[in-house]
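=== Structure Prediction Worksheet ===
Name of assembly: unnamed complex
Input type: mixed (protein and possibly other molecules)
Chain count: two
Listed entries:
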Amino acid sequence: MSLVVEQISKKYQDKAVLADVTVSFEPQKIYGLLGRNGAGKSTLLNIINNRSFASAGQVLLDGKPLTENEKELNQIYLMSEDNLFPGSMKVKDIFKISAGLYGTFDWEFSTELVAAFELDTNLKFRKLSTGYRSIAKLITALCVPCDYIFLDEPVLGLDANYRDLFYGYLVEAYEKRPRTFIVSTHLIEEITNLFEEVIIIDHGKIVLTDTVENILRESNMISGPREQVESFAEHLNVVGKEELGGLVNVYVSGELHQAIPENITVAPVNLQTYFIQLTKGKKGI
Amino acid sequence: MSLVVEQISKKYQDKAVLADVTVSFEPQKIYGLLGRNGAGKSTLLNIINNRSFASAGQVLLDGKPLTENEKELNQIYLMSEDNLFPGSMKVKDIFKISAGLYGTFDWEFSTELVAAFELDTNLKFRKLSTGYRSIAKLITALCVPCDYIFLDEPVLGLDANYRDLFYGYLVEAYEKRPRTFIVSTHLIEEITNLFEEVIIIDHGKIVLTDTVENILRESNMISGPREQVESFAEHLNVVGKEELGGLVNVYVSGELHQAIPENITVAPVNLQTYFIQLTKGKKGI
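=== Predicted Assembly ===
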């Protein structure tokens, strides 16, 4: 079973929000779906989950279009910034309704999570702070039986302790029952080591899909006097540049086949820095 | 002019949310107000801004209680997770109404900020994503003429580029017209160097107020075999502890007067780590 997004485009009032997006999600992998504010991430997630319609293209689960198949759609769960349940509903009732909608619910795990995050499930959803809304949503997402779980900003508003706790529980959930998680977040550094693959979306287009291992191995920052750095980087794939007086930092991807001249330093780059450099340009397709 | 919170307590249904909170904010300083999810931060901010009432205690601006003084209250602005304007209102109209409510508005600066963050001010507030809602709110907060600006989670949902942009503009706003900013955030590390003082709230109580300089100078992690570390830390103020087999990390605050024995390493601690250690216990006053 695999989930394939095929040539999806989306326009709002003649403005292209997504342009020809093709990406596939394999079973039992943890993906990072990264993009800047306004890059089109949430639109893509809403289309995959049938909450919004594509202007063109289709989403296939096991080769079958999702729009024609309610049963297949039940295999996909989206935790998003939208609240699908009325604000007056108590958290414990959200769990119950989710159990009904998706067939089962991991009540044992949810009890453990509720205790760990000190969530009061008798509270109405709208009485919760931003952080606790995220907690209620992420517990639901980790306990439904679906095979594809999309987590859009799961740690929004969470303190550092609770973010760490969530990362631990995500790994635990995955190990107990391997399934596909697709995590979209702006706090890249602290979750990088959980991702197997990364998909970067920018200006409504997929600009990179690769394993974290490959990205980290092939990303470097080259620093030194402008002329020497530019000459060294001439045949490399330059993704970003910073100037500081006569010195420059150039961010590159790809193998360095040449010997490194004196005056020039080469340093590895973490995923967050690589992402920032790759996507720091202005918006608009 | 100074803003003093005097012995504020707050109960919800017999549960103490704030207990005897006393803290003062001096003119023209940038404060960090740090606390875990559920620590009582938002309740405190709402009381200071007259959006919620204290069970006991008072808030004084220049010695006068704020509850009796609408004019003084106008000197205080709170950017919070609550949306005070109808979702159907366009962003540009939120700016206009804020200008009317607070007397003036820095239109030149807001134009610069709108361009930098690529915010479409013709959009209705509810059409904005979480990140762009934060952007619309923080632009308003940086452009009203108030002397005390509370920013509750200003970077909620912002990507890393935009978070950096905001930190830069906060400094610029402060330098152009020094005023008091009180910033509440869960992303402590990336903003530490902007804070002059830090206030830490935990379980509804103020547990620390100090300058960042003092906290960083006096905070250390002591690592090594359990017995030696415990004996070394005996007369120090221990704020947290981690065990890893026979080895322990003990986090302490205060000056180290003794010589450091062999086997033991002492390393400085950053503000986020210090905060995590100080507040990692269970909730409940």
